[in-house]
Structure formats: C-alpha cells, structure tokens
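To whoever picks this up:

The parser on our side crashed when reading a file containing two proteins. I've narrowed it down to the boundary between the first structure block and the second sequence. Both blocks are reproduced below exactly, byte for byte. First block:
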Amino acid sequence: MLVSNATDISSPEHKSLRAFVVLYTLMWLFILALLASIYYRNEKEVMLSEHRLSMQLVNETYYQKIDSFYKHDYLPRSIAYNTAVFDVNKRPMVSYLEDSEVDFTQVISLKNGYIHFVVPLGKNMKGAKYLVYETQDNRLWWNALVKDLLVYGVLVFVFISVIGINLLRIFLRPMRESIKLLDNFIKDTTHELNTPVSVIVANIEGIELQKLDDKIAKKIRRVDIAARTISNIYNDLTYLVLHNNLAVEDEQINLSRFLCERVDYFKVGIEQKRVTFSREVDDDVMITMDRNKLGRLIDNIISNAIKYNRVGGHIHIELTEGVLKISDTGIGIPKEKIARIFERYQRANESVGGFGIGLHIVAMIAEEYGIEIKVDSEQNKGTQIELKWKSTDNC
C-alpha cells in the first residue's frame, strides 16, 4: 500500500460525508429523472394532441376523396399530409408515406421522427381497412422542452444544494462534537501529564542501576519502560493537539546518527521483550527536517515495531540515501485494515493498547515533507514500513 500524503487518508468524517453525498445525489437524480420523464410525456402528449386536431380537420374533407380509391384504384394526394391506405392485414395498398413503420395500436404516434394518425375505414372499401396520415416532427417542442429542463434544472439544483448543505451540517454535527470532545480530552490529559512524566523520566535517568540489587534494578527497568511509554504517548498527544502552534525549525540532520540515538532510547523496551535487533545503515545519510517532527516520525514507527512484535521477535532497520526501511516479525496487519492504519484513532490490533494516533502523526509529517510511505504486511509474519524522500546533497 502506498501513502503519499495525509489528505489521501480517509477519516470517519470524510467517509460519512462521501456516503451522505452519494446517497443524497442518487436520491435527487432519481427524483429529477422521474420529474423529467413526466414532463417529457406531458409535452409529447400536448404536441400529439395538437397534431391530432389538425389531422382530424384535414380528414373531414380528405375522407370524401377516398371514393376515387375504391372506384378507380387511385388515391389522391393530400396537400397537408402524406397519406396511405392499408388493408386488414396492415399491409400498404397505396402509400405516399416516407416512413412505413406505422403503430396501428395507437390512434396517433411518434416514431422515427414521423407522426402517424390512423383512421379506421368503413366496410366495402375493397379490402382497405386503415387510412393513415403522416407528417414529419419538426422537433420544436423538443427544443423548447430541453430549454425548459435546463432552466428548471438549474433552479432545482440550487434548491437541492441549499437543502443538502443544511442537511449535511445537521448530519455531521454529532460526529464533529464527538471528535471535538475527544480532542479536548486529549488536550486536558496532556496538560495534566506534563509535570509527573517529566519528574519520573528525570529521576529514573539519575538512578545508577549497577549499584542496585538485581531484583530492584529489574523493577526500576520496568518502571523505566513504562515511563518512556508514557513519555512517548505524551509527545504524540502534545504534537497532535499543538502541532499547528509549534515552531518549525528545519535543519540538516544526520539521519544515520539520529537513528542510533532513537534506537538507544527504546533499548530498554527492546531488551524487555527479548527482541533482537539488526541494522544496515549507510554513514552520513542527511535529511532536512524539523528535529522534533523527525523524532515523532521515527519513534512512532519503531515503537509500533516493538509493540506489535512477538516475544523473541526481530527488528531490522535499513537506511540508504533517500530510503528508510523498518521491518519486524510481529503480528502483521490484516489486509482489510492496511488502508486504514493511518486514520486518526485507528489501531491495527484492538488487543494492543494505545490511542491509535501514532501512525496518523507519521502520515501528517510525511505529507508535510513530501515523504512517500509504503506499507507491506502479512498477518503473523510481520510488517515493513518504507519511507522515501528526495535525498539531500551532502555538498
């Protein structure tokens, strides 16, 4: 799966918006098509009624000339319309029609651009059963119909758009209020976590474990892991809530060294889970980024590689110019969830704790710096996350 920027990542609000727009649009398209069909049929009936009245008036005088047909086998032409005489089997006996496809089930009909008016003949007409009048459709009614549909269509579109926008606001309001409530909770939580987390981390770093009893040292390491986990969550929450207000200072960073520092930061957690670690890191690979954002980017990927790994698993880091790959032998990600792992508050596995914001932050930072993310994962085999960016010239 490729993720080029965070705007491509669906959020629950965007999904709800798309679902509403699709359903609302389909509903109104059906209604408009139904109204247009009714209007079309009505206009067509009006047009045919006008032609029928005109043909009936002509028929009153022309019908008298039919006598010459059964007396002399000759059918005089009508000045107003094309005419024809059909037998009982609906075959033409004498025809001046331009279109011989006549619908005898209708008194008047429109077909192939021609209007036909069918008049049944009386008996003793030498086999003649139907007198048919024909005229070509000038389509003036159709042009007027299209013009009206366009005008009314625009007015209806504006009307349904106004209704749709207001319905959309009502539809999304509960979700936005829920997200706002969760954001406020995170903001308040980060504020309360700041002081205790800082005190715990600072005091643990000051403890000389080698001077302590092994059992006590082991307990201190567990506290250290927990403190670092809380610190990492705190950093994520702070970034998520305050990232728009944080000062950005892009600089050239030696990513090779930076990676080593971040791996050392997670060393206690790696040892606790008995995860083996390997790396193929080229020297002096440079990247231009804000140091804090680079830390959030790398820390969240490594943290997930540890968190979702199995006990005794393996993590491998490979760094070359413009490419960073971090792979693990963990539980993997189901195929149906890969497309959603970068969504806010989404977790690849519900059995593992967390807010589901780490990879969302990764996607946000990747979008900001034009970094392409590729995720390859297989359940029960592991996951590899690959970052690609435009390499920085060392000169």
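<<boundary where parser fails>>
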Amino acid sequence: MKEFRQQLWDDEVRAAWQQILTLAVREDVDRVHDWTTVSLVPERATGAALVVAREPGVVAGLPAAEMTVAEYDRTVEWSTLVEDGAWVERGTAIASLAGPARSLLTAERVLLNVLGRLSGIATLTRRFVEAVAGTKARIYDTRKTTPGWRLLEKYAVHCGGGHNHRSGLYDAVLIKDNHLALGASLGGERFTPAQAVVRTRQFLDKLLGPERAAAMIVEVEVDTLEQLAEILPAAPDIVLLDNMPPAMLREAVTRRDRDAPQVELEASGGINWETIRGIAESGVDRISLGALTHSARAWDVGLDWNVPA
C-alpha cells in the first residue's frame, strides 16, 4: 500500500507557523503597543497563568503556542502539561506560563487562536475516526484548507488520529473529471479515466525515471460503476468513488476485490454524521472529508491567571 506523507510537527510546519505568526503579531499590535495593557499594568509586574480547556477535546498546536509566546517575549517561561493528540476534559490545564505580566496579556489572543483552531480540527477528526471504529476505513483530510495554514491543519488532523491526503498538487496525481473534460477540448477527443492513468504513468516515467515515478501515488476519480470496471485494469493506486451511496460502494468493493485487489478505494463527497458509518461498513479503504478542515469549530480554550491561594 502506498501512502501520502503524514504530517508531523517538523521544521516545515514550524516555518509555516513562523510566517503566519509574523503577520498575526503585526495585525494585533502593528508597530506600536497594546495600549490597554501598558496603560494599566506596571512595566515591572510579573504574573503566572494557565492555559485551560473550556470543553472536552483533543489538544493540537502546543508547539505553535510556545513559539507564539517566545515571539512576544523570550523571557516568558512556558511549560507544556499535556501532549498534542491527548484528549482532555473541561477544566484541564494544558500549559503554564510565567513572566512579565504585560507580555502574557499581549500574547494571549494569538496563542489561544492557534490552539483553538488546531484543537478544533483535531477534535472533529477524532469524532469521525471514532465513528468508523471497527471498520477498515481510514479517515483522510483534503486540500480544502485555510490558505497558508495547510501544513498546520494537516498536522492537527494527524493529532486527531486521522490520515493526511496529498499535501498539494506537487506530491501526488489525482485525475478528476475536469482534467478529462479539458483534455478533450485540447486534444479533440475525450480520453477515458483509464487512458488518463496510462498517459500519466508514461509521462511520469519519462520525466522522473522509473523509480521515482513508481513512488508517486496515482489516483483517479470515477462517478459510476461502469467507469470503475473500465479503470481497474489500468491499476491506479487509488480510485476515488465520488458521491456514491452505500449500496453502490458495496458493489464497487466487490468488483475491486474480484478484479484488482491491490487498488485502494476512497469514498468522498456528501459525507456527514448520518452517512459515514454506512459508508465505512461498505468496505472502502479510505474516506476523505473536506469538513475536517473547512468546517471545524474552534475549540474553546482560555487563559486563567494562576493566583496563589
């Protein structure tokens, strides 16, 4: 089985957050001050605070939050109390920080924004993963991500127990209906999905060489069982079954098992809480949902001053 790259917290994600963080700090304080804080808080005042879960969920983004605090003030002491990917209950302290009170107050919103966004994605992903438990289906994200946030959001999906689909257009092939339609207009004749797979493999082999070409995933989208039957002999790595109901998906799995068991089947389109279990029980290998990233609600997390009793 070929697999897309799974996004861990690494130097690439760190660099992506640093770019976003620079903009986030600029939009919050511009090149001046947090006027509320400098007006009310003495320059030498210090404090300590806890980052606290306001609701149950999966934590994601703690390394980004730590970077955020350091961006405002490197003298602030940051301690992580749980790990990314952990499920926590309401009221759980997930991190602590101590240092100049002005810095803690000024950094608060940006660090909570990144934790809320990424933990919301991780929490939604975990719920979908649990919804298909006991089946062979794996939950995947899509490229329907916030511009600039893709690596971070895919990292959050990973924290939630999901799997990452291709990172971008550069690291895998996914032949969709629009590619076939445009190919017809340019070439004078519409080629079939199977022809597109063969043509793509030939191109990659010539451009990249056999070894690199063989490592790249080639996926193709189909809408009907007739297209599936036609595509299986071409042996793509994955066939995306677009908007098929469970009964049709079960038939697709039967045909795949009989004719090309090495090909993985991915269900996508129109998937929600009401339909996902039936889709998973059809026997497909993968289920991809744009909702993991484009529809996740921000997780409720807050900063509480740690006042000694």
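After patching the parser it read the second block fine. The first strand starts at residue 46 and ends at 53. The chain has a mean pLDDT of 94.
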